[in-house]
Amino acid sequence: MTTRGVISLIKKVILISFSFLVLFFIRILYMQNVYLSECEKLQGVEKVKACEKVILFHFPLSPYTKKAINSIKFECDNMTKEKEKLYCYETLRSSLIQIRSFYQPYKEVIEKIKPKIAHLRAVETINWQFNKYSEQDYEKLYKDNLMVLQYDNAPSVLWSSVVVFSLLGWISSVIFIVFNLRDPIKISSLIFGVLGFILFFSLWIIGLWLS
User: Fold this and answer.
1) SS (H, E, C) 130-149
2) How many angstroms separate the CA atoms of 196 and 205, rounded?
3) Which of 68, 76, 195, 211 could disulfide-link to 155, CB 3.0 to 4.6 Å?
4) How far apart, in whole angstroms, are the C-alpha atoms of residue 90 and residue 48?
5) Measured between alpha carbons, how far is 149 from 118 in angstroms, rounded to an integer?
């Protein structure tokens, strides 16, 4: 194949990949729009469930995610039953945490509702276990719940990247070794492949452990 032919093939591959990417984002926007339309027709817990689906289909710059968040927040603030209100705020928080990648979208929303969740958890704990806790235990329960909510258990971005990179590395090393197991065997290439496998596999294990 000539150089011009290779360049033409690369252009076609890039164009096809870009087209699939555009179609993928259009599909996400369509699903968000469908769930948001459903969300706007409902009330209470069912509304929260529908709006949660919009958030879970989030991608950067989507105009629908913010609308869904505002709908859930409005619904949470207007619920009268503490059990439902707690479910509402926790659903909003968990759905936002689930769309986290290398950064946390709408982190300010999560921070604002943490004290509300801690308060409701403390109140519900007293209500559920009235024979064990009383109103005097509220402050301690509130602080304990808030401390748990403040704990960031998200995986390390650095080591998560190392996991992906090293996984590709040791798989490539295995493929390299297989392709070099031909007669005559090139000892130098085989040693290079084995050392690469050991290095990347070790990094992969370390990354899994530390991420």
Assistant:
1) CCCCCHHHHHHHHHHHHHHH
2) 14
3) 211
4) 11
5) 8
pLDDT tens readout for residues 139-148: 999 999 999 8
DSSP class of residue 151 equals -
DSSP tag of 129: T
Torsion of the alpha carbons at 127, 131, 136 and 139, rounded to the nearest 10: -50
| Residue 59, number of CB atoms within 10 A of its CB | 15
Cα(96)–Cα(104) distance, integer angstroms: 8
pLDDT digits (tens, 9 = 90+) for 23-47: 888 888 899 999 999 998 998 999 9
In the chain, which stretches have pLDDT less than 70? 1-11, 102, 153-155, 181-183, 185, 211
pTM for this prediction: 0.69
Distance of CA 150 to the CA centre of its chain: 18
Question: Rounded to an integer, what distance in angstroms lies between the CA atom of residue 37 and that of residue 31?
Answer: 10
Give the integer Cα–Cα distance in Å for 126 and 133: 5
- Dig out the tokens for 165 from the structure: 């990179």
Cα–Cα distance measured from residue 87 to residue 95, given in angstroms and rounded to the nearest whole number: 12
Cα 163 from Cα 171, distance rounded (Å): 12
